[in-house]
Amino acid sequence: MGQSRFIVFHFVLLLCSTCFSSSFGDQNLDKITELPGQPKNVGFNQYSGYVTVNEQAGRALFYWLTEAPSNPEDSYVFLVKWFERFPQYKYREFYIAGESYAGHYVPQLSQIVYERNKGVENPVINFKGFLVGNAVTDDYHDFVGTFEYWWTHGLISDSTYKRLRVACDLGSSTHPSLECMNALRVAEVEQGNIDPYSIFTQPCKDAATLRQNMRGHYPWMSRAYDPCTERYSAVYFNRPEVQKALHANVTGIPYPWQTCSEIVGNYWADAPLSMLPIYKELIAAGLRIWVYSGDTDAVVPVTATRYSIDALKLPTVTNWYPWYDNKKNQDHEKGGFVPHWHKPLTYNMIVP
Ligand SMILES: *[C@@H]1O[C@H](CO)[C@@H](O)[C@H](O)[C@H]1NC(C)=O
User: Fold this and answer.
1) Of 67, 201, 236, 340, which sits 20 to 30 A from 294 (CA to CA)?
2) Is 293 inside any structural domain?
């Protein structure tokens, strides 16, 4: 079924290799808004219509495209179409990278690309592997490692640590149980006003600080992380001229752009508890995987990543060794540690 859908997509894409660069307007005209007999709110979009293939001879072919409803499928269709729009990138070595919740969608998309490439000689998407940073990987081990990080960094009390372990350990991190939510709320209050993405950085404060920061970064962190980045980006990407320049928001969405949408989060149904089965499949397939983690993030901490990756029980092939950002000068700056587990999976820990 999946395979035949792929062929259909591909067929459409071959027909359309030039039409995708035309406006979304054409797409919207082709959208099937209502099909007699079809139940309402089917949860996927359908398009059909004619694509002119020879204007002079008056030849046009008809297509009917059904967009797959699930998320990695959508991302895969996006990739296929993107390569049609940028054919100069076809057949080049291709990696997928992301951080945080991308710990889910990067491996999921990688799995689809790998499976669709299976048996294809010289695939268009010449997929080699993926990279994830501070990645949500396995709910159980992530929870264990996250609570441990909070506790060992003095962010929560002993009793809250115990309460979290009892209330949350076996649940889903995307949709925690009520008891777990309550324990998480207590932990949040105890953590206080910190930047959870960088616990030793001053948190982004008020509008005055924001304005001041807009003119320049903190002098003591010229090249480092700016805790107001998230706020700047929400201001910047909502500017109409920025959206226009980026060809974004062409449909005039009735609400503003956010860095992390609560609406999307609350309705997120597609959240498997673990990505480890996908890791196993892709490691066995010989794909390259690089897992790295900054050790000042309390949201998806390095301890969470270590427990999750350890759960794969991979053999160690290289001992833990320090890694410098300037190889020639070891006095320079220690960039992190590199435990090298299994050939196709490299793990890297980054210290500031
Ligand atoms: C889209 O644009 C409209 C203005 O045309 C704006 O009001 C809205 O906030 C924007 N939404 C997003 C998601 O960017």
Assistant:
1) 236
2) no
